[in-house]
Specification:
The complex is a heterodimer. Chain A is an alpha/beta fold. In chain A, 24% of the residues lie in helices and 18% in strands. Chain A has a single domain (14-129), classed as Hypothetical Protein Ychn, Chain: A (3-Layer(aba) Sandwich). Chain A is built from four helices and five strands. Classes of the chains: A alpha/beta, B mainly alpha. The interface between A and B is medium-sized, with 14 and 12 residues.
């Protein structure tokens, strides 16, 4: 993995953004993204996460997965801080369109408008979409 | 996949010896795993195992070693929250060995 991503020899730190656009369950994208984010933390890169569209549901409080017989991974977002991943951006328009606010989320985030989100994406060296 | 009998109970393990069903865990299972890993369990070992299990309960993942070290330092003090101390307890990798003994999955990102 290290050669592909050019992170050897304590190399340069790149800005990575993981963009999450899908609802947490029903597809594997959200969980896969979260796992890649946790793994990427080992490489000590500058990591940020963006939550847009249905991706904002990933951070919602009180998700009950009993009915679909899957393990809920909501709590795992709270572990990100311990991994020094503290830049979580949530798009305001996506929250509002779904009748959600910051209080409905399991972690502290920065709510940004679509234009600001676009600027943040522009600053990245690598953007990975899930 | 293999089934072993631990203290009269059939327990399923994956190909690396981790518990398949996390609910199967108990102290007998931990002692069995520890023996397989050639770890002699002491109070200090249990302290790390208990910590890991609490961490898992709170976050639903097994932490990476760097995160484990930091979190243990915060909770149990800097003399325990360092690699040297944890590697002395679990020579073949604290995160991996302690997770196995603690009945947790392999840490995410652990290869």
């Amino acid at each position: 993995m290290s050669d592909e991503m050019d992170m050897e020899e304590g190399g340069t730190i790149k800005k990575f953004m993981f963009v999450n656009r899908k609802a947490p369950y029903g597809t594997i994208y959200a969980l896969e993204s979260l796992e890649v984010v946790l793994i990427s933390a080992a490489f000590e890169q500058d990591v940020s996460l963006a939550f847009i569209d249905d991706g904002v549901y990933q951070l919602m409080k009180n998700i009950n997965t009993d009915g679909i017989e899957m393990k809920s991974f909501s709590k795992t977002y709270r572990a990100l801080e311990g991994y020094d991943i503290e830049k979580l951006y949530v798009e305001r328009e996506s929250l509002e369109a779904r009748g959600l606010s910051e209080d409905d989320l399991v972690v502290d985030v920065q709510v940004v408008g679509a234009a600001e989100m676009a600027d943040l994406m522009n600053e990245q060296d690598v953007v990975l979409s899930f | 996949m293999a089934t072993v009998n631990i203290a009269g109970k059939d327990v399923e393990l994956d190909e690396e010896g981790f518990l398949t069903n996390l609910a199967d865990w108990n102290r007998d299972v931990a002692e069995y795993m520890a023996k397989e890993e050639k770890v002699d369990m002491t109070e200090s070992h249990w302290e790390v195992i208990d910590f890991l299990r609490e961490y898992y309960d709170e976050y639903q993942i097994a932490p990476a070693i760097r995160v484990l070290t930091k979190a243990i330092g915060k909770k149990l003090g800097p003399d325990k929250g360092n690699n040297k101390y944890l590697y002395e307890l679990f020579p073949y990798g604290p995160a991996k060995q302690a997770c196995k003994i603690g009945g947790l999955p392999k840490p995410t990102g652990c290869i």
